[in-house]
């Protein structure tokens, strides 16, 4: 992919984010609605969605909220 194409992609992503007031939840909802529209159109084929692991299968993560130093 050329630098120009990457620049355009980033520009479009920024415009979509701006339309959603840069709210992550609204951006994700936008992309999910768009995906559903594409699925309903029948014009595109999609890979199967990966199954989500059960909460007990998720790896435990330790989060250090205190800075050391």
Q: Any overview of this molecule?
A:
There is one protein chain. The chain is mainly alpha-helical. The protein has a domain at 3-44. It is 51% helix and 0% strand. It contains 2 helices and no strands. The chain is extended, with a radius of gyration of 18 Å. The termini are far apart. The relative contact order is 0.06. The model has no long low-confidence stretch (mean pLDDT 85).
What structural keywords apply?
single chain; 69 residues; mainly alpha; 51% helix; 0% strand
Average of pLDDT: 85
Rg, nearest Å: 18 Å
Overall helicity? 40-55%
Low-pLDDT ranges: none
Structural class computed from helices and strand pairing: mainly alpha
Biggest sheet architecture: none
> Helix and strand string, N-terminal first?
HH
What's the multimeric state?
single chain
Shape: extended
Report the strand count: 0
Strand content: under 5%
Alpha plus pi helix count: 2
Q: In angstroms, what separates the terminal alpha carbons?
A: 43 Å
């Amino acid at each position: 992919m050329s630098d120009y194409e990457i620049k355009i992609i980033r520009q479009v992503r920024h415009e979509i984010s701006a339309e959603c007031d840069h709210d992550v939840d609204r951006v994700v909802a936008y992309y999910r609605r768009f995906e559903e529209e594409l699925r309903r159109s029948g014009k595109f084929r999609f890979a199967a969605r990966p199954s989500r692991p059960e909460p007990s299968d998720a790896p435990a993560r330790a989060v250090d909220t205190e800075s050391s130093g």
